[in-house]
Amino acid sequence: MGVMELAFELPKELEAAQPPEARGIPRDGVRMLVTDRATGASEHHLFLDLPALLQPGDLLVVNDSATLPAALEARRSDGSTVALHLSSRVANTLWVAEPRGPARDGERLALPAGGSVTLVARVDPAIDRLWYARVDVPEPIVEYLQLYGAPIRYSYLEGSYPIAVYQTIFARTAGSAEMPSAGRPFTRRTLEALRVRGVDLASATLHAGVSSPEAHEPPQPEPFVVPHATAASVNAARDAGRRVVAVGTTVVRALESAVIGDRVAATNGWTDLVVTRERGVHAVDGILTGFHEPRASHLQMLSAFAAPDTIERAYRTALDGEYLWHEFGDVHLIATRLAVR
Q: 314 lies in a domain?
């Protein structure tokens, strides 16, 4: 079985329709499936158990990208409206955007407060949903989105929530269209427990674009930064035989894009890297991530950490154990040398 053929039905009741806080659970109280990538064994835990599962000297690398309220209501020339999701800023006023409906070359859509967006061309002729778009708004785009935008939300969510609900504790640099959700369960309580445990922390930045809802659609290029201090911390940890655990697929993509030879280098730019089992991972030993949809391209990345049959068993365990999917759901830790029976 290739991991891209990991097909399963995701029951509606396993879609996290609300943030955990709205379900009476603290951010750090979500469930965590823990899979040992060496033995293939999995255990049920809470995210609060994370510090105890790591060793002193281990390094967690987090994504410090902040989430933008990147959904706008746009109006066509005939007066009808369409949702517009801004995905990635290419340069100045040029963005990759996703109109949530039919679109055509050169179409101009009106935005609130006299703004407009012009659809220039498809990003990929084979993909209808993503467009290069010229965005013209009356003030700096981050401020404009704070005034007129809303967080991107999908049909499985019940209710609307403010942008603060979509920020992680690590959020520093605005730029993600969708929350780097693997970092969401972390709280001050978690960070203090990790500090006491002797686990180190470093950060990288990768601005996550809109997710890929189409089966077998590859990830789109995304901007990233791996600072010098983070590259040095990763190299030092690996030299000393300590584990490096990426918090999220975005961090894996950033760090692996910064690998030169057997070292991580300070790097910034755009990455179109797709991490697969054949390529493997060279900068990290483990990953903390959410649960991904059937046939999602992120499943390819998981197969770089563990054999496809291990991933399949873990997902069957998650389904049987009624773990929750999506950005407000539960999480999955895959690493070596874990306290898993």
A: yes
